[in-house]
Structure formats: C-alpha cells, structure tokens
Design brief:
With 80 residues, this protein is mostly helical. 30% of the residues lie in helices and 0% in strands. The structure holds iron/sulfur cluster (SF4) (2 copies). One iron/sulfur cluster (SF4) binds next to helix 2.
Length: 80
C-alpha cells in the first residue's frame, strides 16, 4: 500500500527526512532493512526486497514530515 492521494518524490531531502524516522524504527532496525534495496524512503521507492521476511514491530512514519506533507495513510511502507 502506498497512498490514495499523492506520489512521494524520491529526493535527497525526503531521504534525509526518512533517515530520522525509518532509521530509528524498530521494524527497520530489527530486520536490518537498510542492508537491502531500496534501503529507505519506502513510501516513494516501494517496499523492501525482504518484505516477505520482515516482522513488523511498530512504524514511525506517522510522525514523519514526508508522511504529513504527502498526506500518506497508515504507514508500514517497507512491508506492504
Ligand atoms: S513516511 Fe515513512 S517511509 Fe516515508 S519518508 Fe517518512 S519515515 Fe520514510
Ligand atoms: S516504513 Fe514504517 S515500519 Fe517500515 S521502517 Fe519505515 S518507519 Fe519503520
């Protein structure tokens, strides 16, 4: 799932913002998502290549400025 209202731009700025939230997220850290493509910015780039093996344990997306700016919903973009 991505968003019903907007497509997120794959920009350096959005990737930097993503690091603050995905980078701190337990799902990201516990599943070592940074080691597999697309590494971050899942709301723009799509889910992780290891999404099928990813055990979700919380999502920080709703706190993220990108989430608000693009009117995203739910989160867990790495896994769904
Ligand atoms: S909404 Fe989630 S995936 Fe998208 S930039 Fe923010 S933390 Fe990253
Ligand atoms: S998309 Fe959500 S659940 Fe996945 S790593 Fe980013 S903050 Fe965590």
């Amino acid at each position: 799932m991505k968003t019903s209202t907007a497509t997120v731009d794959d920009t350096v700025g959005n990737a930097e913002t993503c690091k603050k939230y995905c980078g701190a997220c337990p799902t990201f850290r516990n599943n070592l998502l940074k080691d597999s493509p697309p590494h971050e910015l899942f709301c723009a780039r799509g889910k992780s290549s290891i999404a099928e093996k990813t055990k979700t344990s919380g999502c920080y997306c709703p706190a993220c400025e990108v989430f608000t700016k693009y009117k995203l919903v739910i989160g867990y973009f790495c896994a769904k």
